[in-house]
Amino acid sequence: MTGADLAILALDVAGYVLILTLVALGLAIIFGLLRVISMAHGEFLMLGAYLVLVVEGAGGSFWLGLALAGPAVALVGLLVEAVVIRRVYRRLLDTILATWGVSLVIRQAVTLVFGPASHSIDLPVDAAVAFPGFEYPVYRLFIMALSLALVGATAWLFFATRFGLAARAVIADRDMAACLGYDTRAFDRATFAYGSALAGVAGAAMAPLISVDPQMGVGFLVPAFLSVLVGGLGSIAGPLAGAGTLGAIDGLVARALSPVWAQVAVLAIAVVLIRLFPKGLLGRRGRSP
Amino acid sequence: MTGHGVEARIGAVLAVAAIGLPFILDDGATANLSVWFAFALFAASLAFAWGHCGLLSLGHAVFFGAGAYAMSLTTLGLLPGLPGVASTWLGLALACLVPALIGLAIGAFLFSSDHLQGPFFGIATLAIGVVAARLCESWDYLGGANGLMGVPPIMLGPNGGGPMVFDTLPVYYVMLAMLAAGLVALARVMASPFGRALSAVRQNELRARGLGYDPAWLKTRAYATSAAVAGVAGAMFVVQFGFASPSLVGFALSAEVLIWVAVGGRDSPLAAALAAIAVRLAEDWLSRALGDVWPLVLGLIFIACVMALPRGLFGEAFARLERRHDRTLAPGRDDHRHPGR
Lengths: 289, 341
Description:
Number of helices of chain B: 13
Number of strands of chain B: 4
Oligomer: heterodimer
Strand order of the largest sheet of chain B: 1-4
Shape of chain A: globular
Radius of gyration of chain B: 20 Å
Helix content of chain A: over 70%
Number of helices of chain A: 11
Strand order of the largest sheet of chain A: 1-2
Strand content of chain B: under 5%
Low-confidence stretches of chain A: 285-289
Structural class of chain A: mainly alpha
Largest interface: A-B, 37 and 41 residues
Radius of gyration of chain A: 19 Å
Order of helices and strands of chain B: HHHHHEEEHHHHEHHHH
Shape of chain B: globular
Distance between the termini of chain B: 12 Å
Low-confidence stretches of chain B: 333-341
Helix content of chain B: over 70%
Largest sheet of chain A: 2 strands, antiparallel
């Protein structure tokens, strides 16, 4: 393997890690703040990808689709929250089942409308950036920048704004926050919609790089969940650390052996890491999850 | 877990009805029902793990598929180091043993950590299921993505050969007998001291530990038991279907069995088994009328059951029958046996 190959592999892995972080961050926000395990997260990602397909089909540009993916999936998230999630708060196991049902319904609805076959979306930009010794597609670099920006924006939202302060107050003590006049229901709605929208944006951004089909969500859901568990909750850096670890293992093993063994390795190492660091690599000690 | 009196009676009535059914139904419907009996036992195995032991397994098809592959490899004579061995009996034993060992290994690893409990166990099993399906697709020994074709039906001879169970009626009664035996076995396990300890662990793990039980080991054994039953169900399926493929391990079947159990009733293997048959039956009737909308409708029914009817349709019906039964037995003694869960 030459230096150029190595650099390309490193960039590929970094791109995957950042997208995975984006997906895992949405899960971590929904789980950490609402105590809801959203099995429909992969389907929100899929909806983002299909939105790009619809917008392009209607004559819009890819970029319009990418811009609309977040708000559109947030709306679906609001709907799901209002109809289903609202009724299962505080029943953790039931949140898994209810959102699992939601994921089945979304998947089937998409299959009905778009058919079970996979679609491909053209790369919006073909250009490549020339590095010393190799070239790298501009679009992949753009995705990395977009993911970084969104992760940063999320950190800013939760740690530097009044909304974030209120959010942390609601996590710390929901009843007290309600007494102080915060609308905790509105907070629930906004959190679920925001977390889902992150998945939608990730799906739209990834759409030109992977095949878009109704089953695509599961492929992201599992590594995203493992990333959250490995990285630990309670900080933005947790999902990043988890996704970084697992994404790197996935990329390296896929290159060295095969994608299948990469999945096996990711699962095995994730389970071992969760056993060794029950609160996550970056989890805080002494606080029950 | 109460209600075995009423439930046992319902089961007996259903069994008698099932014995008579082939005389009313045509050949095709009877053959369909025999295949559904395999799914029914699969659903019962998940109801045992989930409802009775509190182990929400989102990748239960791993065990169904492992049983199907174990049976197929044996009867196709593909066992490593054992050329010429093609016994259905050995296949059945392995279809029980291999999934049980996989379940034992998964349980031993996951349950010994305090962190991988409840919902996290579900996520871990989901991940295992997805990865296992990928492994099967790329494992040449298991036929890769094509799977294993031409799996023989049940041969009663000690090593293949002998009388073959192939015609519709014999297959139907063999499958019915195996389903009944599986359900009775699960009911007996649930009523045994082991089963009661499991119920105690589900309700309050800390207290069970305080009383001297080892929750991790109990749950591990329970998961292995459920896996063994699911494996037998997989074997029942594959000797009829003649074809083992990675889809028997995959995510879709795990999702389906979860729906059957949630809709039927997670507290009762019998209710879950009934639901598996009922959902398949409804699918048969309604998919002509509803077409591709049917899975959508099924998903909505599933969500409704999760939100409003945690005991499931049949589970709720059983509970009501039992309540009525209790009232006729002892007037004035009201329903205090079902504290909310």
